[in-house]
Amino acid sequence: MEAIYVQGIWVAEAFQSKTREYEDFWLFATHIGDPKAAFLIVFPLAFYVHRRTGVAVVWVAALSEWLNLVFKWILFGPRPYWWVDESRLFLKNKPQLQQFQCTCETGPGSPSGHAMITGAAWWVVASSLSSFLRSRTGSKLLAAVPFLVYSVLLAAVSLSRIFILAHFPHQVVAGILAGVMLGVLLNRTVPEWRSLVFFLCSSMALLLGALLMYTGLEQFGIDLSWSISLAKRWCSKSEWVRMDTAPFSSLTRDAGSLLGLGLAQFWKPGGWTLPWVPKTLCLALSSLALFHISQFPLPTVPPLLFYSLFFLRYAIVPQVVMVVVPGLVHLLTAKPKRD
């Protein structure tokens, strides 16, 4: 594997050098591919267009990110931004590499979570839109357009991860393959009308399953926090190492989102039937609310408090999108019944 890592470093250096003028585009692409974007951006957009697709995005994104965490714990993949110095193979001929604010993620590197979750969550959107176009127009050409856009988006996100030194090329390829397969498989089993108990059990299964695995590997002497110390050692700026990129942040986001999805469907089964104009207003209000929720600072000490609040943050997201905002818009726009 050492030869693959060395080659990956030189590929990243060449890619940074040749596409430096597109830095803003690559940073934007990596932001769009962030796993949290599936919950905060893709989910509300998909939900107000087609309810089943929105529910599917949360379901697929949560399970895909959880599996990505498990894969990372098993595969122990390094990240380029710290491996290049930690390996001590480039002391005489050090590559010219630049780190960015979004470079210093703390979890292991293989497979790429951005590529994997983007590949899975956006597959749901692309396949739903393709089916709609095919049914309305009967054109295979138009039905292929969403998958073309999907491919371009996935390629841009994947290349951005190499550009910012978050992943080696082979880790990105692995993320793409895993994400597409999970998108196809999980999109067939969306629990749109399942009970609150189902979602509660699913949420607890993700939490307990990961914690049991973590504890079990620790008992065998495997330190699963090894990548966090390396991130802190080799990141250009200490403030770029954030707790919301840690493995347990991904875990609490996924578990919280599934519980929130179950609660939202429990409070208002089937939701409200709204015309397109109120739906557009819902999307705008939801996006504004989710932006402020995601930007609200959380205390990082003690860690248990941070992870608990992080869990609650993402449990709130489906409530806002599926219950609070549509209910408010319905209340304000509903025509009064005549006697």
From TrEMBL:
Location, primary (coarse class): endoplasmic reticulum
First-level EC class: hydrolase
InterPro entries: Glucose-6-phosphatase, PAP2/HPO, PAP2/HPO_sf
Binding site for substrate: R79, R161
Gene Ontology cellular-component annotations: endoplasmic reticulum membrane
Membrane topology: Multi-pass membrane protein
Domain Phosphatidic acid phosphatase type 2/haloperoxidase: 53-187
GO biological processes: gluconeogenesis; glucose 6-phosphate metabolic process
Transmembrane segments: 25-49, 56-76, 115-133, 145-166, 172-190, 197-217, 305-329
Keyword Transmembrane helix in record: yes
One term of GO molecular function: glucose-6-phosphatase activity
Protein family membership: Belongs to the glucose-6-phosphatase family.
Protein name: Glucose-6-phosphatase
Species this protein is from: Pygocentrus nattereri
